[in-house]
Design brief:
Two copies of one chain form a homodimer.
Chain A lengths: L6 H4 L4 E4 L7 H14 L3 E4 L5 E2 L2 E4 L11 E4 L6 H10 L4 E4 L9 H16 L3 E3 L5 E4 L4 E2 L10 E8 L2 H10 L7 E6 L8 H10 L5 E6 L5 H11 L5 E5 L4 H11 L6 H10 L3 E3 L2 H13 L8 E5 L2 H13 L9 H10 L10 E2 L6 H10 L5 E6 L3 H9 L4 H5 L2 H6 L6 E5 L3 H11 L5 E2 L2 H24 L9 H5 L7
Parallel strand pairs in A: 1-2, 1-5, 2-4, 5-6, 6-7, 10-11, 10-12, 12-13, 13-14, 15-16, 15-17, 17-18, 18-19
Antiparallel strand pairs in A: 3-4, 8-9, 8-11
Helix pairs in contact in A: 3-4, 6-7, 10-18, 11-18, 12-13
């Protein structure tokens, strides 16, 4: 498989939208979206009705477009797709995104229709994404086969592979509020041709992608997925959310993207062996990606916690230690330094519970600099009445907690994650002190868990980089047969 | 133990604050807070310096206050507490909240000081909350021994017992944004006298309290806690977050509220046997309480899911089924009704994946009315571009999804929980359609988990109500010895 094979999906030179139309829906929204993002002169519209739409001529057939074309986006009704695919093939276009639904996910006759489309595509040597998807997003050149809000087009280090179109779309709406921005996104749908393995390898080569998040209902091809993961996770973390853990959950996916989602424990083992991170929940997926996208890999598993609440420190400690991190004593140097400025009642230890000492701004840099500590979790809470009283006395959040973003910059080699809970205004004040390089969590446990995940990836990553060992697949051929997509 | 014993903490007739002062801190802030909430004429201030503060005379000694007094709030430095306690005892005051820190939580000498205070309190037959706490909140009469933001004084059905003062305070700041409001809150600190068991029984009798949330680092007295839980959980759900799951986490709590937090699995077993719900995380605690505070107990474990995203439906299904819920087929009546209005491509099943059908407003009432379904999870997502396009075409969220709050009212006997993910404006639109009686989650798994928790409580609750069996404690005497608070 050559990665260049997929490039036209993300960097087309000439695009034809087959199924552009006047009525509400994808076929109506995508042309002006692409026009508004600089693709107008490389965009061509096709609809048997002809005429004009959004100020552009509408061709009746793909053949009528004489300009260069290397990508087709198909949005016609399902029963019209085979005919359209013939037109596209005849025209010599080798890359097609089929967004239309109503194929394998609907049952027998849909599956037959999908097989027919597949045969046509193969006959022309075409690469196909979909059907039953919304295709691709590339923020670098602002190309997308789906309408998006402007915010979702801000370039960033994260790429998404999602089996479901709606799921991918919702993530694109949702992630900016967590400070997460996208390089590429792909929704796979029924995976008639292109699957997650090929896309992982494409994103591996993509210099803009630093972290890959994946939503799967089942692997299109288990052994190939493991092989791709082994390769890609040597360079980039891959965090996977997979549904279908239970029998009932599996049934739920079957009618959705036409996948059989396989035995769940096989996925657990396979992902772990391949160095991929499996998230338990949607929020766990986002949490892990937030930390991977903003933090360096730690040199070891030694966590230091600084906290203004002993309780929250204890809750974070439980999760960190359960996740494989250690909480060593602070170095004698740090203890001496801290003792000099700490009030008598403060225990100078790890977790470093500051109580109402108001020494956060002095102690955070000491903890980050400690040679015994590989990463830091900072838990910042303060009753809002105290915040308001201090504010009216002229004391700002910055006076109390320091210029956290600058402190962060002085220790770029150590992960630093924050937890802030309380009144929304306080949370906002602290988040702005922390800046975009410190992810802020609303609960101590997921923050500790995300740091443990970061460490586990760094460890497998290092180990595999050193040994360059060949990772064996947990999927054997027997098991795989039941795990292949119905249609892939 | 008589519940009336504790009433003066929440409904004092005359209050003396010992340690009122001019400089920043609790001693400065609480008097005007109480004045502003209607307690001025029942509030008296004491400080050896005398003079005037916040327009009130400051007495030099407790004895100098001639008006009726039945509650003392102590905010003097630790070393001055024994002397002050003698004054309070002499004055005949039987209820004291000691907010001062610097006792058992700081080590040997602090423990000795605390024992000294305890001996004095016992000598006078005094009941004591604290030390090392912020005392109590009662929203019904707007009494609190701690400064709070106005929002936190809105009366509601939830009561809090928290071992840590900061933790309790932060919860009070944080909960209103989840629509959770408080009846009573108590922070226990080092538990020289009053402990969580007594408070549970007090809240059991409190007609304003419907749900109790507890944060513990360790039980003051294990067998007594179990006994109280068995009793209270027959009437009200009790959700407990307990830190110290790991050895390192336990060490973290030791220097915080002076607790030994015991062996974690004993707590798991004891809480389960006693019918209490143990939360895994802070957000799990809040999630469970949100559902208990707003939803009826389900009649059975049959969950119906309605969703605009098949993927999110599958993720919720996995968690629901793992948590003990079932996802039965819809009744023939519902299937027929739904089939009449559903587009051909839609699978009318459970989970009910609506795709882009825009039939939510018609199908939600059918699902809620289904005789085969005991509770409903509604997952509402829509790409924000579609929302904006629809809005500009004059179609509102209400047109699309119906008057969800009214639908909810028609089925008051069935729990209904929502999941909304995406652009913040969309989330806000849907939340306002749902109203305060439907908790909205930002991820499908915690919503499904909270519903499973609701069902588990309803089951143990019913079972125990029927059998009225005597619940045996998992704590045996041997284990308890190591589990008793250092000081309690």
């Amino acid at each position: 498989m050559s990665v260049d094979n997929l490039r036209n999906f993300f960097e087309p030179k000439g695009i034809v939208i087959v199924g552009a139309r006047r009525s509400f829906g994808f076929g109506y929204g995508i042309p002006p979206f692409l026009q508004n993002h600089g693709w107008g002169n490389r965009l061509h519209l096709v609809n048997p009705a002809g005429g004009e739409l959004h100020g552009q001529n509408v061709y009746k057939r793909v053949q009528d477009v004489l300009e260069p074309l290397d990508l087709a986006i198909v949005i016609v009704p399902a029963e019209a797709v085979p005919g359209v695919m013939e037109e596209i093939g005849e025209r010599g276009i080798k890359h097609t995104i089929i967004e239309t639904a109503g194929f394998a996910e609907t049952g027998e006759s849909g599956l037959a229709l999908q097989e027919k489309v597949k045969t046509i595509a193969m006959g022309y040597g075409m690469r196909v994404i979909g059907p039953n998807c919304v295709g691709v997003v590339n923020t670098e050149n602002r190309f997308a086969s789906v309408e998006l809000i402007e915010e979702a087009l801000t370039p960033g280090p994260v790429s998404i592979i999602a089996q479901s179109g709606v799921f991918g779309n919702i993530l694109l709406d949702h992630l900016p509020q967590h400070g997460l921005f996208i390089s590429k996104a792909v929704t796979l749908g029924n995976r008639l041709d292109v699957d997650e393995s090929e896309l992982l390898e494409y994103l591996d080569e993509d210099r803009f992608t630093r972290v890959i998040m994946v939503y799967l209902e089942g692997a299109a091809n288990g052994p190939r997925l493991v092989k791709s993961l082994v390769k890609v996770t040597q360079h980039k973390p891959v965090v996977i959310l997979k549904s279908g853990r239970t029998q009932t959950g599996k049934q739920a996916t079957a009618s959705h993207t036409g996948s059989l989602s396989g035995q769940d424990h096989i996925y657990d083992a396979a992902f772990a062996q391949a160095g991929a991170i499996r998230a338990d929940t949607l929020s766990g997926l986002i949490d892990a990606v937030r930390v991977f996208a903003t933090q360096p890999l730690p040199k070891g598993n030694r966590l230091g916690i600084i906290t203004t609440s002993g309780s929250l420190g204890a809750l974070a400690t439980d999760v960190a230690v359960s996740g494989g991190l250690t909480m060593p004593p602070l170095s004698p140097f740090t203890v001496n330094q801290a003792r000099d400025i700490a009030p008598d009642w403060m225990n100078v230890r790890n977790p470093l519970d500051l109580g109402p000492s108001q020494k956060f701004n002095r102690l955070l840099p000491m903890l980050l600099a400690d040679s015994e500590i590989d990463m830091v979790l900072a838990i910042i809470v303060l009753p809002y009445v105290a915040v308001k009283n201090l504010k009216s006395a002229g004391v700002t959040a910055r006076d109390l907690f320091g210029d956290i973003a600058s402190v962060r910059k002085q220790h770029p080699e150590k992960p630093l994650v924050g937890v802030v809970i309380g009144h929304p205004e306080f949370v906002e004040d602290i988040a702005s002190l922390c800046g975009p390089s410190i992810p802020i969590f609303a609960s101590p446990e997921p923050a500790a868990k995300a740091l443990a995940t970061l460490w586990r990836y760094s460890r497998t990553h290092d180990y595999r980089m050193q040994k360059n060992r060949k990772c064996q697949s947990s999927f054997d051929d027997q098991r795989i047969s039941e795990d292949t997509s119905l249609v892939g």
